[in-house]
Target: Iron ABC transporter
Amino acid sequence: MSNIVLKVKEPKSYKPKFLSIVIILSIILLCISIVASLALGSRVVQLEELIAGLFQLDMSSYGVSVVQERIPRTIFSLFCGAALGVSGALMQAVTRNPIADPSILGVNTGAALFVVGGIAFFNISTASQFITLAIIGAMITAIFVYGIGSMGRAGATPLKLVLAGAATSAALSSLITAIMLPRSYVMDQFRFWQVGSVGAGTWSSVTTFLPILIIGIILAIVSASALNALALGDEVATGQGVRTGYLRMIAAFSGVILCGAATALAGPIAFVGLLSTHLIRLILGPDLRYLIPLSAISGAIILTIADVTGRLIGGTGEVEAGVVTAFIGAPILILLATRMKVRSL
Model:
C-alpha cells in the first residue's frame, strides 16, 4: 500500500475542536442506538434487566434472556451498517459519483444472484459459502457496471454509471426471480432475506463477518489520502504521485468485499451507504480521512435504528430493516437527483 502515494497534498484540516465535537456526538448516538436495540422491541426491557443481561447477573429472568438474544443481533447490525457505510463512501470516491451506493450500482443484486444461485444449484448452507459467492458476484457485477459505464467518449460519467447500475440491477433481479420461482424451497428460505434484515444475526455470523470487516476498513482508511487526490482528477492525482489504477483496484476491492459480505449475511439492504456518507459529507465535507471512519459509525447507527424502528412499528412481528431504509432512502435519492446536478465529486 505504500506505493499508492508518493506525495499527496492533503485537504485543509478541520478545527480540532469541531472535529472532536462531531466524533463525540457520533459516539453518543452510537451508544444510544445500541441501548435502544437491546431494550426496545415487542418486549420492552427495563433498565435493571438490561444491566443484568449485559453482565449475566440473573439468567432466570425473561427480560434478561431477551437482552441476551438481542446482543448478537445488535452487534451484527452494527457490523453490517459500518460495512455498507464504508462501501458507499468508497464507491462514491472511486466513481466520483455523489449518488453511488452498492444498491444503486447493482452490486447488492449481483451478490444476491450468486447466493440464490448457490442455494439452488449447489445446495450451499454455511455463512462462509454465502460470503464467498456473494463477494464473487459483487465483484463481477461491479466490473461489468463500470465497464458498461465507461463506454463512449466521456468515459465513466456519474450519470452513465447510475444508468448502467440500474439496468444491470433490473436484469439480475429478473434472473433471481427466474431461479426462485420453480424452486419453492429456495423461495421459502430467502423471501425475507431478499428484503434485507439483521434479524438472523447470530454469534456465528458475527465471527464470520468480523475479519472481512476489519480488512475492508483498514484498506479503506489506508487509501483515504490517495482517494482525496483522485477526487481532483486522474491527471492531478498522477502528478501528485498516485497510482490511480492500483488505487481504484484496492478501493473497489475493499468496497466490494464489505458490501458482498453484508449482503450475503443480511440480504440486499439498500441506501445505507448513500445516507451515511451524505450525512457525514454535509457536516465535515469531502475529506475521506474523516469521511470513511465516520461513515462507518453513521452507517452502523442508521441500520441499527432502522432495525429498532421496524421492531416497534411491526407490533408483535417486525418490519425488516431493509424496508425501513428503503422507505427513508428512496425519497432522499429522488431529492438528490432532482435538486443537484449528477456530477463528479
